[in-house]
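### Sample
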Amino acid sequence: MTSDTTGRPDAPRNRDPWRVLVNVAQIPETGLHREISADEAARKAMAEVAELREVISAHAEFDLQPKRDGSYHITGRVQARIGQTCVVTLDPIENEIDEPIDVVFAPPEQIPEMADLVDDADDSDEETPDPPEPIVGGFIDLGRLATDALFLGIDPYPRRADAVFEQQVEAPDPENHPFAALKALQDKANGKKPKGN
């Protein structure tokens, strides 16, 4: 039986480009530290989904801390190097991504109650936490979490540091102005021949 970066043997990659599953039942009370790196197949799939030239490297580290209410607080960061195309020169360029991760996962049955607490916090002046993500089938997908953070860090308008957008300015044509057609009609009515004839 083969094992890929999903953490589960022969797991399919058809839904998410990078899957690394952690069984919450195996997270100790003291917490768990995990570091993951995307293999070539995962990097290629991420590049296709994000419409990038390539994902050269992708690495993430996480600290998973269980809470007494059955939820899990996950912090960490994803670091990646991606290949893009400069929007000014169309040259290939590479960019670094370094995105923090801070999210809570909870059993699906707790999510409505926890979401209500988030809604109540909206009315206060304090910073509102994001609603928790659901734990699906007893697993948390660290690969998907890292992928989402990586995609958030992508510059949608990448450009080389020395690239300058220069708009070409053409000299205005005296015959091409808003009232040119009106002047031509007036000249015709007065019996004048149009210029250039």
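Confidence is low (pLDDT under 50) at residues 1-14. This sample (DUF177 domain-containing protein) is used throughout the tutorial notebook.
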